[in-house]
Design brief:
Four copies of one chain form a homotetramer. Chain A is of the alpha/beta class. Chain A has a single domain, classed as UDP-N-acetylmuramoyl-L-alanine:D-glutamate ligase, CATH 3.40.1190.20. The interface between C and D is medium-sized, with 27 and 28 residues. Strand 3 of chain C pairs antiparallel with strand 3 of chain D.
Chain lengths: ~325, ~325, ~325, ~325
């Protein structure tokens, strides 16, 4: 796979920087949150979920982030460590910031929403001086998540991490992960997302997320090819544009367009689909698989997560993904 | 009871203004919150709890407050209404504020702590123009809670409510309820607490809370008599100073000092003790009882709440309090 | 004069708390500021001007305030000291605040405007712990200026100063001095102005300023009598309501209404008229003169200031006021 | 001159984006500002000064910026227009922002300081949607000034302007112009300065400014060559590093190092030296002169400005610079 290469001989296969938060998932589902009585606590946040996924799939992983100095923060670090993720660069905030929260409401498998607590969130307090150059130099992949660009000083920490990655030849993956409520304006978002994307090797986002990034560069027909082509002028090798139920398309620098089949699932909720897809896909290409096979693997991993109650806690092992694919191939799993 | 009188012929016995929030109580108790797996959701906030208590005891109650425009906010209003509290003056924030949260951690019956989410809290967005003069004119009692003084515009809303109450002869109860994390400085707190207390008929607080109010007026021996005497120069008739396990003392304008016996309880946690005490005590004096009998009633109501998992949801009816007192008197209840 | 009395035997006749700033007066007048080439620098701010006026009239004066740690701040302190004002309680900000500025534009004697710089102003950083109780206890009069109520912590400093003044029997004068640009909302302003006014012996303001204070207490006919009567329920003895060119009216607790004749002037600009009026009037009543004579004296002092280029620097001595009155009486001065 | 080229056939030779403010220069010099009595008003701000300089030298110029909606703002626009600068993209703030101020204090020709007013400054409110792509596409040169990167939304506006310039082949000049008081931290500054510099063709700064940019990339010997070399990996063609009295050095992509002789001057103050130098130098290279000749021209322009009272108003015409050089060459001008 020549579109993107990965440096060998590094201590870690995968390091992510960004959001660490707590999901509070409604225990009573298929009803509005007003009528929910209790919630179960999980580690959350896109880059956290992806890293947990990568670790479960057997890779050597680390995280760069910031947690609140409280029980929620300690819960997060403890969970990462239990999952084999190196947390030496997960620092503790000392300014009184809190852990970001996501209360999830599952009205039906297709009608899910999230109530976010992002004011004074600890993860956005990560500062440039807390970004460890050696760790980035010692990782094959650095994953950045767009949410971490939403505010200072986390925004500057991510730009510095990107700089370190370019300097040391670490391959950079950009998970766009656009959450409007943490941003001051769509204009501001577009400017920083574009600045960051210029320095990334793989960019993954939904069609709507790329639309937002094209605010100052009209693409009236919302052409995926136009969108992808821009980034191939920079260092990008793969652009994945997700079209929801219609599946994802991967564009590569050589001009090719890659699609993969998807798998059926008994859907409980849609949360976490993107994170498990990213973990599965990245695992594939890090393993040297074709883009198509990697996409299928991501798709199967996503099916497993959306069939269960949590995101992070449901991230599958390689064995679980393999089994799921086999069962699908045998026709044992059908959609709800 | 001539120390404080209550206007007759009003539509409501009791109206409170201030904090409305959500408590998330750990389901797995006697462990640190890091190890808690799930939480149960209750309505919370001192003035909310007291109002629910008053309503359960059979009084006609109303609330002036502000909720977030989300599922948490709708849950609060729904719960107040189910408890017979008039919510015509509970307005909905339109600025994107969130519901204040209190995660409770119960490590042991005597080692409890709270993890608060107060950034961008909807209750502190209540503005003066949202304070209904007619409602205050139509209530026998207005209860204000000190937490509502912590930030603008809620602070100004409370001062305006106090002004309306004085104008219409509504009796004012001040529950000090000092929560340092919502204030910019102890100096600021002391100034506004004193300004508010000057306009109140009954003041209820802990010794530590009165210490904080005396920041600019030294009382080196922390004399309760000195503390209470100051307020009798204004319109105050009763000052209750709470000394934790050593019990409370009520000082009255006539120079008397009142103490009451307390009851035993099988304590689960200490949260909510003050709120149920306030509800029981105020119910008593509104009923024309002696201060001592009112204090005992408050004490019994508090025992019921600290013996159960929640605060608001455990607020007792008059029948429950009476039964509790009878059982204690028969020696059927002993402390843990 | 029994409406308001002044404690005797104090070290200072007059102490003011509040705004200290710099006026930059256009040297080229009768043109818009766009065409102004240069500005002359003066000390400014209502309470500063009044204190300078009182000192020029021969009283023993002091100031409680905060200045920026820069050349502008040092200029202010130096000027106050040159004018015989005690500056032991003028403290220096250490947070990087700046000196408030007022650029004055004089298009014509009746068309004057001000361009204010009030962001991050040092005077609004005065904190309660910087208010010296002994100084207030040692002054006959404390003057507070409404602008100092516009933001924390200056607002709390003023409320604490009021508390000290009541405690020690110091007579309090409230110069309303409402400047909308420093306030968040008119609601907020009304609440704090009313809270402060309850504790003052003399209140001086324009009809428009009292209208603002009556935001929650309708006075649809804008009756001066209604306005003044409210404050006589508190400790106030004199309420002066200014009606611009139609002159001022002083209301006293005994129900009387006092008006005084005014003097002609060759007007250069209208700035500073209120400050010099206040200084002259207060000098009169502190001297035991009748309200009418005091008002006339204030009026003459105002004429002197509006006939000159500056505010602070033009504040007259008693000799200058006496001479002005004599010359008017001899018909030597006529209006422009 | 092949290090940097300039597109031909554009409507404007030079467009700047960024700070527009007002300088208030002490009329009484050689004394501390405390003793200054009056100030003269000039247009100020580095990019404004440079643009005025370019216009005086005969180039076709435009400005992209934001002014306060007051007399100061109108004064700025009026002055730019009088100097032949296109102001169609100088927009007026509607949020109540003020014009940034710089009070200059001249204690001696070598001891000058500035008292800045930058809180709520209108120039930092420029937003991306106010950046005109066509203007940038129609200009040979875009100059950005580092101060405009200090805060949102001006920071994003500059990054968008850089994007437009790269897209349309407009040559970009970066005047570092680092003013610490407008930034939150040196870390934040370094990150954004580096991000911007990557997209610039000519970078001009002092040794100290480049030190700040190298915060995360140690250059312990403060080597100019190391500093310059970094930028030649991007699109930069010329890096000018200023060493104060020891003169400036221009590094070019071809590895060469250029120095130029300087001229004597009767120095009144040092303000404005950098801006006039930049204008003179850029005029030279836009005219196709050698780097050395351009540097000498900048040096002569700077001498003229530091010999006079103002910055903007003293920017010389080409005739004035030529005359100055000739007089220096004839020995008619000597240093003070």
């Amino acid at each position: 796979m020549s579109d993107v290469t990965f440096p060998a001989g590094r201590s870690f296969d995968f390091t992510a920087i960004g959001r660490l938060c707590v999901d509070l998932n409604a225990n009573e589902i298929n009803r509005p949150m007003e009528e929910t009585m209790s919630f179960t606590k999980y580690v959350g946040g896109s880059p956290a979920n992806i890293t947990i996924g990568m670790s479960r799939l057997g890779l050597r992983t680390a995280f760069i982030g910031k947690i609140a100095d409280d029980a929620m923060g300690r819960f997060i670090t403890g969970y990462l460590e239990k999952n084999g993720i190196d947390t030496a660069n997960v620092v503790t905030d000392k300014t009184g910031a809190v852990t970001g929260l996501a209360f999830t409401e599952i009205k039906s498998p297709t009608d899910c929403s999230i109530l976010m607590y992002r004011d004074n969130a600890a993860d956005l307090k990560l500062s440039p001086s807390e970004v460890n150059e050696e760790l980035i130099a010692g990782s094959s992949v650095l994953l950045i998540s767009g949410t971490a660009l939403a505010a200072s000083p986390s925004r500057e920490a991510v730009f510095l991490a990107l700089d370190y990655a370019r300097k040391h030849g670490t391959t950079v993956v950009f998970d766009i992960d656009y959450r409007p409520y943490t941003w001051k304006s769509a204009e501001e978002t577009a400017v920083y997302y574009n600045l960051a994307a210029e320095k990334c090797d793989i960019i993954i986002g939904t069609r709507e997320e790329f639309d937002m990034m094209e605010r100052f560069e009209p693409n009236p027909e919302r052409s995926d090819l136009f969108t992808a082509a821009k980034w191939f002028n920079y260092s990008t090798g793969i652009v994945i544009i997700k079209h929801g139920k219609e599946g994802s398309i991967a564009y590569t620098r050589d001009g090719a367009e890659h699609r993969a089949k998807s798998y059926p699932a008994k859907v409980v909720k849609t949360f976490g689909a993107g994170d498990s897809y990213a973990a599965g896909f990245l695992y594939g290409i890090l393993s040297g698989w074709s883009i198509e096979r990697s996409m299928e693997y991501g798709s199967a991993a996503a099916c497993i997560v959306i069939s269960s109650h949590s995101c992070s806690d449901a991230m599958p092992t390689a064995e679980q993904v393999d089994t799921y694919i086999e069962r699908c191939n045998r026709g044992e799993i059908t959609a709800n």
